[in-house]
Amino acid sequence: MFENLKEQPADKILMLMQMFRDDPREQKIDLGVGVYRNAEGVTPVMRAIKAAEKRLWETETTKAYTGLAGDPAFGDAMIGLVLGSAVARDKVAAAATPGGTGAIRQAFELIRMANPSARIWVSDPTWPNHLSILKYLGIETVPYRYFDSETRGVDFAGMIEDLGRASAGDVVLLHGCCHNPTGANLNMVEWQAVIDLMNERGLVPMIDIAYQGFGDGLEEDAAATRLVAASVPECLIAASCSKNFGIYRERTGILMAVGQDASRQAVNQGTLAFLNRQNYSFPPDHGARLVTMILNDADLRADWMAELEKMRTGMLAIRRQLADELQRLTGSDRFGFLAQHRGMFSRLGTTPEMVEKLRTDYGIYMVGDSRLNIAGLNESSVPVLARAIVDAGI
Ligand code: LMR
Questions:
Q1: Quick check: CB of 34 below 6 Å from ligand 1?
Q2: Ligand 1 atom index nearest CA of 101
Q3: 0.85 exceeded by the pTM?
């Protein structure tokens, strides 16, 4: 049997992690995988997580199974965090999943189950694993223009033109905030236009929101997702707690299905639970429980928000410093987009050859499409990167 197995394509982002580890040079900078790092290069366990873990250790009396959709309290807390009061609670079905990726996978399966002929429209570019999972599931994918490689902003006209060709029932995969890999985002006027178009054409939005709190703020980053959920008949939302709670390896995420009205909620909820059961049965609980404790406790929540805000503003300061440094070295504003982009990533907009040159000649690791992780930088590595960008001739 095993002789029939073929080597699988390596995930570009995870491959880069390994290459960085294997590089013996002392002077090397990892701008690859999307993991937050502080100025010391550490991915810290957030204070509120530590406090919640301690409390949980002291008070938890059982490790027996929760529900198939996870603890309902987690669902309530996350619906509150992501959707606020944008939609009535009884329209929303929700299930805990192993990370945001688990939610994405379950959403794709739900789409395939509900409408096997639906195509999924994805931004060009998008997170590579979106494409990989879609291909694995045999779901037809259609790219829509998104990134303007001249301005490094959103090619909004191209996006609207492409989505104008989608058929009723097709799904549009959108990044709720902090677009990965480009860092370029729609403004609220543009979001409204996309919503109008989706409603006009009968398209179903699916939102991947993995970086809430890393862009313009917790509420601000949820604004587009809330507007979509409040303005369309149905949508899917895959949310991750990996980044904003710093609990990557705990695999904590949630899939929400916002239905037309409360009458659909029970079937939608049952479907999410069923899909969990088929794929991995009960979702992981530890991270979800910590998140619930933090969101439901005023002190823990305030401390978590304060630490997250410091991470966010730290990344913004790095963006500003890098844009300024490049301005100083080149005498031009052509890297000004770095300060405009939001979230952990920016797409530099250079060739794979240049990305390789940065890696071999300067020990600077970024994803081949020239995505750089802003959180991989600190005050002292920014000038090193800026100098390398200029010296390499980017
Ligand atoms: C990334 O884009 O780097 C992160 O979402 C981590 C991953 O799993 O790829």
A1: yes
A2: 8
A3: yes
Question: pLDDT of 199-222, one tens digit each?
Answer: 999 999 999 999 999 999 999 999
Give whole-number Cα distances, 162 to 86, 152, 203, in Å: 28, 19, 13
Assign domain 10-44+305-392 to a CATH class. alpha beta
Is the separation of the CB atoms in 181 and 131 below 8 Å?
no
Which of 127, 91, 96 minimizes the C-alpha distance to 275?
A: 96
65-296 and 10-44+305-392 share a CATH fold: no
For residue 306, give every residue at least 6 positions away whose Cβ sits within 8 Å of its Cβ, in sequence order, or none. Answer: none
Q: Which of 98, 118, 99 is nearest to 108 (CA)?
A: 118
- Span 65-296 CATH architecture: 3-Layer(aba) Sandwich (3.40)
Ligand 1 atom at shortest distance from the alpha carbon of 32: 3
Q: Rounded to whole angstroms, what are the CA distances from 330 to 322, 381, 383? A: 12, 18, 13
- For ligand 1, say whether the CB of 13 is within 6 Å of any of its atoms: yes
Ligand 1 midpoint to CA 370 (Å): 14
Positions annotated as catalytic residues are 127, 208, 210, 243
Ligand 1 contact, 180 CB (< 6 A): yes
Find the 99 Cα to ligand 1 centroid distance in Å: 11
User: pLDDT, tens digit, for every residue of 325-373?
Assistant: 999 999 999 999 999 999 999 999 999 999 999 999 999 999 999 999 9
Tokens 């690859």, residue? Answer: 32
